[in-house]
Task: structure prediction
Amino acid sequence: DTAVSQTPKYLVTQMGNDKSIKCEQNLGHDTMYWYKQDSKKFLKIMFSYNNKELIINETVPNRFSPKSPDKAHLNLHINSLELGDSAVYFCASSQGGRSSKETQYFGPGTRLLVL
Amino acid sequence: TQLLEQSPQFLSIQEGENLTVYCNSSSVFSSLQWYRQEPGEGPVLLVTVVTGGEVKKLKRLTFQFGDARKDSSLHITAAQPGDTGLYLCAALQGAQKLVFGQGTRLTINP
Result:
C-alpha cells in the first residue's frame, strides 16, 4: 500500500502551459505539504495545509495554487509555466501535531520539465 | 544563507571505509532529523534527535546531536554500496515548517 502517492511521476510541458499535480495520502494524517527540490537537490517547503486549511505559504509565485478538496488530498496547480519551474515536486504528510518529533512521509516526487 | 549547513556536499569512498557527515547551524533547535533520499524516491526519515548530546544508533549508522542543540553528525561504519544516497538533515522552524540542509551526496564504491 502506497502511503503518499503523486501523479504524474513525470511531466514534460511547454512554457506558458498550465498543469496540475495530484497528491493523495492514506495515512489518515491531518497535514499535507508541497516541497520543491531544485537541480542541486535543495528541498524547500512551498505550502502546508492542515485539515484543508492553508497553514504555510512560503514566498512562492502566485502562479502556484494549492487546493485541498479533503484532508487526504492536496493538489498543486501551476499556471503559465516557466523554465525555472523545472524541478522535482514532493508531496508529504504528517499527523499534524505540534511535537518536535513528528515524522513527515514523502511521496515519490513529480519530475517537471518545462521546455 | 542556509539555516542548516551540511558538509561535505559530496563524498565518494570505498566499501568498508568509515565516514562522518555534518549538519551545522548557528540556531538552537528543539530537535533535528536525518533523512535519506535514494534516486527517484522521496526522502525517508532515519532518525530524530531531541536531547542535547543524544546519540542514536541505527545498525551501522550513529547519529549525534550536539550538546548545544545547534549541530548534528552522522557516522557510518564499514560503509556499503547500499548506503549510497542523499543524506539530508532537517529541523523544525515553527510548528510544522521543516527546513532542510542542502544535503550530502554519498557514493559508496564496491
Notes: Chain B has one domain: 5-109.
